[in-house]
Design brief:
alpha+beta, Nucleoside Triphosphate Pyrophosphohydrolase, seven-stranded mixed β-sheet, three-stranded antiparallel β-sheet, 5 helices, 10 strands
Length: 214
């Protein structure tokens, strides 16, 4: 059976233009930028959905963003974000329960969707030429250049109603902002999750309908 995403991933120049495609490991060591998406989801009570990395993956054992992944060859960032949200949370890359909407439609989507069954998210930022630090399963440190599209969204889905692939995700949890802060200070967040939290937590916790306890 072929490996998932065997077609490789996009590689980009410094200005964000696609200049080809390479196998994932080769792309990460090429010096060219690789595309990635990050998604943070928050509940109505201000609790952030985190996933735990399996021990045999990069940053194994650490807590990470709600959803993340590489931009496959031929995809754009939004296509990847929709696919990864479906794959990682529902084991279905085409899941209708993961809704990406334009930023201007986000409020209306919140009013029309059942967030106990569906999640909705919007594009928040695109950052070019980020230097990422990763811990490989063999203990080596790996630096990779990324162009990263970040997304923020809402959901109130019970943990038992998610269906993450066990080979990709070791567990899910909802964590308060204070708990995420504590994980960061204890070194239990993946490095890129720490960056994402520091740069986007304020916007995430300010999404419509989120009530953060004092």
């Amino acid at each position: 059976m072929p490996e998932p995403h065997a077609q490789g991933v996009n590689v980009y120049d410094a200005r964000g233009r696609v200049v080809g495609a390479r196998p994932r490991d080769e792309a990460k060591g090429s010096g060219l930028a690789v595309g990635a998406v990050n998604l943070l989801l928050v509940s109505s009570t201000g609790r952030v959905l985190l996933q735990r990395r399996p021990a045999d993956k990069e940053n194994g054992g650490r807590w990470d963003k709600s959803v993340g992944g590489h931009v496959d060859a031929g995809e754009d960032f939004d296509t990847t974000a929709r696919r990864e949200a479906g794959e990682e949370l529902f084991s279905d890359p085409a899941s209708p329960r993961a809704r990406l909407v334009p930023p201007g439609d986000f409020g209306a989507a919140l009013d029309s969707l059942d967030l106990s069954r569906e999640l909705v998210f919007r594009r928040e930022a695109l950052q070019l030429n980020l230097r990422d630090v990763r811990r490989a399963p063999d203990g080596r440190t790996r630096n990779v250049v990324y162009h990263v599209a970040s997304y923020l969204g809402r959901c109130d889905i019970a943990l038992a109603d998610f269906a993450p692939p066990p080979e990709e995700i070791a567990g899910l949890r909802y964590a308060s902002a204070a708990e995420v802060d504590a994980l960061l200070l204890a070194g239990e967040l993946a490095p890129n999750m720490s960056f994402l939290w520091l740069t986007h937590a304020r916007a995430l916790l300010s999404l419509p309908g989120v009530r953060v306890a004092p």
